[in-house]
Design brief:
There is one protein chain. With 149 residues, this protein is α+β, with helices and mostly antiparallel strands. It has a single domain, classed as Alpha-D-Glucose-1,6-Bisphosphate, Chain A, domain 4 (2-Layer Sandwich). Helices cover 29% and strands 34% of the residues. The chain has a seven-stranded antiparallel sheet. The longest helix is centred in the C-terminal third of the chain and has 23 residues. The chain is globular, with a radius of gyration of 15 Å. The termini are far apart.
């Protein structure tokens, strides 16, 4: 049986540099990523975390690769939920491919889930489609989607 993997692709009207900024800047992430602000230096080997307004950290991990403005890879540990906290970290890869003028293809692969640990896999499966739709809407209109899920 193949390892569980989430794979998403979305086309966004923006430059690779602007998309990279939206992925890594707390000013952007808090607007489309369920209010989470990334904190990191974005240097390989360094930690990152998301921080919510209440001071809690739902996700954290380690930066594995950062090649602005085309590729970001990090471990993903869902520490904000008692059901997922005991599971091993997985991996998230953001790949930005420039297309026509002012357009990019964004591919997000969330994989590396430990064998038999499917709670995180199931929980993030509902979040990624909204996050990526919200990111696209924010970059193309200047406003996030009107309601979160």
């Amino acid at each position: 049986m193949p390892a569980p993997t989430h794979v998403y692709e979305v086309y966004i009207r923006c430059t690779p540099e602007r998309l990279w900024q939206a992925i890594t800047s707390p000013d952007y992430t808090r607007r489309y990523f369920f209010g989470g602000q990334y904190e990191s230096t974005w240097q390989p080997g360094m930690p990152y975390r998301t921080l919510l307004d209440d001071g809690s950290t739902p996700f954290d991990g380690t930066i594995l690769e950062a090649r602005p403005p085309t590729r970001l890879v990090y471990t993903f540990h869902y520490v904000g939920d008692p059901e997922t906290r005991l599971e091993q970290p997985s991996r998230v890869t953001w790949e930005i491919t420039p297309m026509a003028a002012e357009m990019c293809k964004l591919s997000v692969v969330h994989d590396g889930f430990a064998e038999g640990e499917l709670v995180t896999f199931r929980k993030v499966g509902g979040g990624w489609p909204f996050i990526l739709s919200n990111l696209k809407t924010l970059l193309e209109t200047g406003q996030p989607l009107p309601a979160s899920v």
